[in-house]
């Protein structure tokens, strides 16, 4: 089943922002260690978050008057319409609690599934690029495969296997699993791991080569006519606002997973817009062709991430759901994908100094870490379906399932056993 | 290549003072800042520097170093704005709600019940580190103790006059063979600061900016050094910010020092290993218990790495440190992925990155360790499990970026159970939680053929008894601090 992501942006009633913020704090207070469990019953939502934006804080002291809005981001299985219907039906209580503070939400005495759904659907905004760490895996599949792995592990640990050949161990595990009615689905539902699309990669390479002269011209224009005029971010982490950091930290690092929300403004001019659109296009192709196995540019810790442009391409949002701590997250980014990240974010205002679009920037570690933290937003509500699994676990569990059902040679069986 | 100004760096960062078997860490409060600064205006000269002294007979028999907490710098009279220029971690100190989560300080390790550094303890302003060595003796702990304590007595007799009040002290000892209380030889692998004049394996040579302000770090940028943003004191004593901000740099040639007092439960540690490896008749299988212990640690008790000596301890003492995991043990069959050493310094094998990238990542998360033992000198083993009284380790480490180095190691690589491809495996020495949530497991996976084994229900074998973050200034900056 295919995973999708939807972003819904709704204006908040002007004088009700505080009410909404308080409501979200209250919901979080009732949650488990910062992780709300409201969407468990739907069994199709991987991650969800509500973020209130434009209610005061601006990372660059932007004077522009903005109206507060509420972002709803959902990563889910299947079609958007079906998901919105389920959310509107099964999670109606929390929707009403939250959206009663928003403009245009149906009055609570008349609201029903259909009107909730049409309200949400009418405020959907488009994603620029979406990354999925375990493409094709539904929430249910992830949960079933976790159970399978735990079952196999318990069986392995129930006896010793000294001097038993790997293929015999594999066979015994398979017998044990298939004898259990809980796992009868394995015989009918065959799955496979997503592959790297080498044909696509080659095609993409040829396209890039063909476009190279234009890309070089773009880089030169950006460098000589834009980057030199840029206002650069030159703060270090020690100079960031204390109270804001404390606010961010309140809901961080409880479990093995964390969330990250970021909002920045585009630099002016069509060249910048062209540059960022090109980077998103490239990202989308790379995600489709290469980053299909649980790693985004070598980063092995991201479950779902995406970029969104809105308000006539003048602003950029970034969302991520990932394993581990903020420090690890950004360290990984710099080492493996500094160029990609710089290529995207150097087109947004007040970024660490770049050269030729993709150098400098993220590689200026201290400024970059500070920039990232400084442009982060408080995620007011966060849902994760499986906080106890890392993305590596999720992918490994599928690999175990796929290999379990195959007939394996001794060498293949030995490899399979390393996955357990 | 960078060349460090060794005369300006306090010695404990560069040199472990390994020959000084006895030390006293004295935690003090400044009661009279004026008197204290007067003392500092003279005694900065007495602080032991990192200067290399080739002629061993000329090395002093006593060493002294000093470090300040954020509150201590405030008490000295550093302006609010200048105090605010230090990193957030140092400003907050080791105790905050968020930091407690990162460090895993819960249950009997919670800061509320710490002996020092917690919210219910008296505020520490500074730590004096006093070392002694009887030069007429050879590795004699008792004789070094006399020299150390005589020096301490001489210092302590002035405490009233120089405006400080002693809160308490921890005596740190070193065994000649450098074994900690679980019985393992410790401190073998240490980063070498580039430009310090020390030599060693190139994979251990780390850019100075990882450990000292004012130099570039492994990312090729200057670390987030504290700057003087509001003028005070004799600014001529300070050098300008290498980062080019135009401000004077109070961090230059200094660093941050992390201190944590970790009680070690020797009985629980070896009792658990004995139980998991016992013979069918219930008796202790010493060889297997030692082997599992070595897998937990990543080295045998002698210090020999299990990566190179997978079957048994070659004994008696080993300093072997020239090995990589990618090269000798990609599948963890010798040194399990979850072992304390492999996860806190994964060398050339971080996640599934290549060797070069792994080494780069490893170098961004190194610390210089300076642990000292407290309590009875005791060498734990499968049959030696019950020391008299509390024993443990005064963990000390140096780093310029507490968040990316010490805290990263404790949280991301030790506490998180998802290292490599693991599922439920925290660091068996320093990462295990005291109590788990329903359904939560804490295991140690031993990679093996044909299939790995799970060692279940790890116990927490250390208890945090206290801790604090200190600023470890350069000698020039000590002099500067006496002028503010």
Automatic annotation (TrEMBL), chain A:
<keyword id="KW-0472">Membrane</keyword>
<protein>
    <submittedName>
        <fullName>Uncharacterized protein</fullName>
    </submittedName>
</protein>
<keyword id="KW-0812">Transmembrane</keyword>
<keyword id="KW-1133">Transmembrane helix</keyword>
<feature type="transmembrane region" description="Helical">
    <location>
        <begin position="196"/>
        <end position="226"/>
    </location>
</feature>
<feature type="transmembrane region" description="Helical">
    <location>
        <begin position="273"/>
        <end position="291"/>
    </location>
</feature>
From TrEMBL, chain B:
<dbReference type="InterPro" id="IPR006314">
    <property type="entry name" value="Dyp_peroxidase"/>
</dbReference>
<keyword id="KW-0560">Oxidoreductase</keyword>
<dbReference type="GO" id="GO:0004601">
    <property type="term" value="F:peroxidase activity"/>
</dbReference>
<protein>
    <submittedName>
        <fullName>Dyp-type peroxidase family</fullName>
    </submittedName>
</protein>
<dbReference type="InterPro" id="IPR011008">
    <property type="entry name" value="Dimeric_a/b-barrel"/>
</dbReference>
<dbReference type="InterPro" id="IPR048328">
    <property type="entry name" value="Dyp_perox_C"/>
</dbReference>
<feature type="domain" description="Dyp-type peroxidase C-terminal">
    <location>
        <begin position="356"/>
        <end position="415"/>
    </location>
</feature>
<dbReference type="InterPro" id="IPR049509">
    <property type="entry name" value="DyP_N"/>
</dbReference>
<dbReference type="Pfam" id="PF21105">
    <property type="entry name" value="DyP_N"/>
</dbReference>
<keyword id="KW-0479">Metal-binding</keyword>
<feature type="domain" description="DyP dimeric alpha+beta barrel">
    <location>
        <begin position="8"/>
        <end position="138"/>
    </location>
</feature>
<keyword id="KW-0575">Peroxidase</keyword>
<dbReference type="Pfam" id="PF20628">
    <property type="entry name" value="Dyp_perox_C"/>
</dbReference>
<keyword id="KW-0408">Iron</keyword>
